[in-house]
DNA sequence: AAATAACATCGTAATAATACGATAAAACGA
DNA sequence: TCGTTTTATCGTATTATTACGATGTTATTT
């Protein structure tokens, strides 16, 4: 690409964009939904659930973990992942903080 | 990339991912915030506000329009863009539908 | 009509994101 | 100890995304 010009934007804008990236792939959405439904999971669960290779799942899990949406605990030979509830709620609030600004919108103007 | 394997995922997962992509770039977040604050804008406003080239802004506007988050009306020689409030609210509900599923999470399990 | 203004689109260069096979590392069981 | 299981990481091929100059189109102005 041309590289994204991060310095042109506010910290909030960059943060929102980075968080949105976590949800911007159906595999990661599927992983998060799976975690929401089953509280936790291991890599192998997802390999069976989704049709992706183990390396690919691991890569998506790492991204979600880097962003902070999920956390992983070692559990014997396997790795147990679950959602980070504090981060989850802060992300929800950040998104709703943006969504709710539609209230200030004047319908007579355009929308 | 390897191409994203859309057929592996549910329609909801693909839809959520596509919507998230709209927010997954700081320039588009900035455009949406600008629209929320000023109700409407034209391409030229954003060229001044952000530091990006006119062609780049136009490209981001087109993506937001294709997703349905914004709409554009011809206004003389210029193009007036604004947020599509119905779509906006449906997107908020879709995201919150996912966020709210954290309620079913059992803290004793892992998180 | 000619010049100007405002966008959209095209073409393309540069970079980010996906996917996966192969391999490495760590824990467990026989 | 040795093989098995599970996950992470590396390397790399492929595709998507950004950015922008150049150009075309439409409307406005002079």
TrEMBL record, chains A, B:
* UniProt keyword Transcription regulation present: yes
> Entry's SMART domains?
HTH_ARSR
Q: Which UniProt keywords apply?
A: DNA-binding, Transcription, Transcription regulation
Note the InterPro entries from the entry: ArsR-like_HTH, HTH_ArsR_DNA-bd_dom, HTH_MetalResp_TranReg, WH-like_DNA-bd_sf, WH_DNA-bd_sf
A Pfam match is HTH_5
**Gene3D superfamilies assigned to the protein according to its UniProt record, in alphabetical order:** Winged helix-like DNA-binding domain superfamily/Winged helix DNA-binding domain
An example molecular function term from Gene Ontology annotations: DNA-binding transcription factor activity
User: Which part of the chain is the HTH arsR-type domain?
Assistant: 8-106
Q: Does the keyword DNA-binding apply?
A: yes
Q: What is this protein called?
A: Metalloregulator ArsR/SmtB family transcription factor
- State the organism of origin: Christiangramia sediminis
